[in-house]
Design brief:
six-stranded mixed beta sheet, SBP_2_dom, Rossmann fold, carbohydrate binding, Peripla_BP_I, alpha/beta, 43% helix, DNA binding
């Protein structure tokens, strides 16, 4: 059996005191850069592993605040499930996570909740911004107070947030553009049904999609981008009206969840096989629609992983001073009728 390397072993190997090793491993003051580098190199050489659980019990508890939309579509409950999984994992690490959910996509309520979290006292904040720019000042206020902010599923890219966890929304739009142009044989009229047009995620998907569509200016016509706020009735009514007014419509790109209500409108009009539908993410309710060929493709954005990873990154920032780039992308998957079985549990 390989003997576990202890702090005492590491101190002896580096010819320093146990206290000096502790300062190096925990990024404390009172140690030179040269000595710290020597100890960290020796730790790596010996295969020393920090006991994060024991270490966490010696510091004060950390509190992470989390804000996400509370609307009933199937995307955010999956994000929340990932957050809960991270919460359960971090319990042993002396970390508590508090979640607040807004009514629908309400950035004003998010701002209210952020201010409440500041009053309550948090060490880190994870948030799905409901507006691309109107939350910048409050996010910047949080960061300027020394509290790191991680966004997930959507973004406030011009704010001081640390990083954003999610798929590359612009690239998602490009992928849908490639699929759609092939599905409609590079000609015809198409529509975009979006959720909340003020959200970065929605905006970038539309931009990416349009970049591809605009390369067919003489054969593909976008009849409009229609906002629904992810409300089931608005989605149903909007799709029904669009198809009634454009009977030769060839395709619809849903940029947000709840696309099944648009599919129901197509079925009621007898247009479910004439209009090609592409939508994000996978839920149980969608399965019969893709099995029956009504939904032609799903861009799976792995919402569970987005929620889990956002919390885990915040924990790493708070406990290890690890740095992250402006985006931490999760690779999307394209789900079609004949590979659906690999994504159903």
């Amino acid at each position: 059996m390989i003997k576990k390397v202890t702090i005492k072993n590491l101190a002896e190997a580096a010819n320093v005191s146990i206290g000096t090793v502790d300062r190096a491993l925990n990024d404390r003051i009172g140690i030179s850069k040269k000595t710290k580098a020597k100890i960290l190199d020796k730790a790596k050489e010996l295969g020393y592993e920090v006991n994060r659980v024991a270490q966490s019990l010696s510091r004060r508890p950390l509190r992470i605040g989390c804000i996400l939309p509370g609307n009933s579509n199937y995307f955010y409950p999956q994000v929340e499930a990932g957050i809960i999984e991270a919460k359960n994992f971090l319990i042993d690490y002396n970390v508590s996570i508090s979640c607040k959910k807004t009514e629908n996509l309400n950035f004003q309520q998010e701002i209210q909740y952020i201010n409440e979290f500041i009053e309550e006292g948090i060490d880190g904040l994870a948030i799905c911004p409901g507006h691309r720019t109107k939350m910048n000042s409050v996010i910047n206020k949080v960061v300027d107070s020394g509290i790191p902010v991680v966004t997930f599923s959507s973004d406030a890219p011009e704010s001081k947030r640390t990083t954003c966890v999610g798929t590359d929304s612009f690239n998602n739009g490009q992928i849908v553009g490639d699929l759609m142009t092939n599905f409609i044989d590079h000609k015809g009229k198409i529509a975009i049904i979006t959720g909340c047009s003020s959200m970065t995620d929605q905006q970038e998907k539309v931009k990416g999609f349009m970049e591809v569509i605009n390369s067919y200016p003489n054969s593909i016509e976008l009849i409009g981008v229609y906002e629904t706020l992810e409300d089931p009735k608005i989605i149903y009514d909007k799709v029904k009206k669009i198809v009634e007014n454009t009977p030769n419509l060839k395709g619809i790109f849903f940029t947000a969840a709840n696309s099944i209500y648009g599919c129901k409108a197509l079925i009621d009009l007898g247009m479910q096989y004439k209009v090609k539908v592409i939508t994000p993410d996978l839920c149980a309710e969608q399965i019969p629609y893709i099995e029956n060929g009504i939904i032609r493709a799903i861009i799976h954005q792995h919402p569970y992983s987005q929620g889990y990873k956002a919390i885990k990154i915040l924990y790493d920032i708070l406990t290890t001073n690890k740095s992250y780039g402006p985006n931490d992308y999760i690779k999307p998957d394209i789900i079609l009728k004949h590979n659906l079985k690999y994504f159903i549990k």
